Amino acid sequence: MVWFVYGLPTDRPFGRDSEVSTVARLLREGQPVGLLGPRRIGKTSILLASLKASGLPYVLLSAEEFVRGERSFDLTEFLSAFVSRVAMAAYSRAGLRLRLEERARGYLRLLRDLIGAIKVTFDIPEVTATIELVLDKGERGRDLSGDLAQVLDLPQVLAERLGLRLVIAIDEFQYLRYARQAAPEVLHVMRSRWQFHRSVSYAISGSAVGMLSEMVGSRDQPFYQFFYMIRVKPFDRETSIRFLKEGFRAEGVSVNEADVERIVDYVDGLPAWLNLVGIKVVSERRGVEEVLSSLPSDVNVVTAIEDDLRKLSPSARAALRRLAELGGEGSPRDLGGSPWAAQRALGQLIRYGYVERTGRGTYRVVDPMVVHYLAKR
Questions:
Q1: Which residues of the chain have pLDDT under 50?
Q2: CATH number of 262's domain
């Protein structure tokens, strides 16, 4: 078995048994649950493992997939994906199988392929009507925002008729905020429908920590206190060391204790970077010191971090770079410029999960790899 895996979620995440057990139990009980934590900490893997451990049929979507440009959201494509995935989950639960290449075909094409089978198999008029509605308006480029309630009720209708509990999981849930441009009430409608779905469990996750925290923790937001939120933390030092040791042993590579600790010192307890270093040590057969010294210029690191930085304003990027130059921690005064501009930049960094407040007037970059990367540029 390959131990180190970078870039892909796994349904067997190391050291996350407690989180997986908790989330799976909550889903079975019908409790809405959310996972909160910065990128590359393993939220999606925990979510995927929890969905499988629950033993329930599930739909997993990433809201980020439907973001267009900087702050636009393709609501029609999202609803098409939502309907097709829900229908497929129910169809599969009925012991049936469809061979469909959904990503290659596009979600509307997938719905067109599905509708005949759904009509014959379930004979549920409400389900057929919802699919035909999405197909008709989607293929004609018509607005679906006025039909949100009908579309969002589909999981409950199917689950109730089939006598099962269904799970709807949305990764990077905070990006649904952008759907408000096309449908200002989208989040209100979601909350108003979901709270009465007795046969559906809902799970979300998000890496824009400040943004998602506001969505679920502010009184003026539709999803205020709707989810039981779990903050996903990095591995502690002991778990990080154990992960690397067991991984190198499984891969048949000898790495001494000092080098294992050096890796943990450099990337901390973020599973993605621990996996990346592990892969490089195993596959490239280079020493740990050489791997770590070249890591900030590794194409995987550059691609991941530059993709993150593109989401930030120039002032927020400059503030993040200055914090990196300071070793990853500093105060608004350390950033230079006006206090107002510094606070605004830090506010955006907190919203997107790149920085956290550690004390009065002190801020820390969450991802040590971001610090290493920016400090060398």
A1: 96-104
A2: 1.10.8
CATH number of 360's domain: 1.10.10.10
Residue 204 contacts residue 227 (beta carbons within 8 Å) = yes
**Per DSSP, what are the bridge partners of residue 60?**
169
Phi (first) and psi of residue 47, to 5 degrees: -65, -50
CA angle 41, 47, 49 (to 5 degrees): 105
This prediction's pTM: 0.90
Measure the CA–CA gap between 32 and 204, rounded to whole angstroms. Answer: 8
Same domain, 146 and 224: yes
Phi, then psi, of 101 in degrees rounded to 5:
-95, 85
Each residue's pLDDT tens digit, 229-240: 999 999 999 999
Q: Write down the pLDDT at residue 95.
A: 54
Q: Are residues 108 and 219 in the same domain?
A: yes
Please tell me whether residues 286 and 313 are part of one structural domain. Answer: no
Whether 111 and 32 share a structural domain: yes
For the chain, how big is the Rg over CA atoms in Å? 22
Identify the domain containing residue 204 by its residue range.
Answer: 17-231
113-141 burial code (b ≥16 CB/10 A, e <16): bbbeebeeebebeebeebbebbbebbeee
- Within-domain flag for 9: no
Indicate whether 132 and 177 sit together in one domain: yes
Bridge partners, residue 206, by sequence? 36
What is the per-residue pLDDT for 232?
96
- C-alpha 272/C-alpha 11 separation (Å) is 14
Q: Is residue 44 in some structural domain? A: yes
> Could you give the number of structural domains in the chain?
3
- Per-residue pLDDT at 94: 56
CA 28 to chain centre: 21
User: In 3D, which of 1, 90, 12, 13 has the Cα closest to residue 274?
Assistant: 13
Residues 162 and 91 in one domain: yes
pLDDT digits (tens, 9 = 90+) for 324-360: 999 999 999 999 888 889 999 999 999 999 999 987 8
5 vs 14, 193, 199, 294, CA distance in Å?
11, 38, 35, 19
| Tokens 């599930």 found at | 58
Question: Is there a single domain that holds both residue 216 and residue 341?
Answer: no
Q: Write the CB contacts of 233 (distance below 8 Å, at least 6 apart in sequence).
A: 37, 41, 269
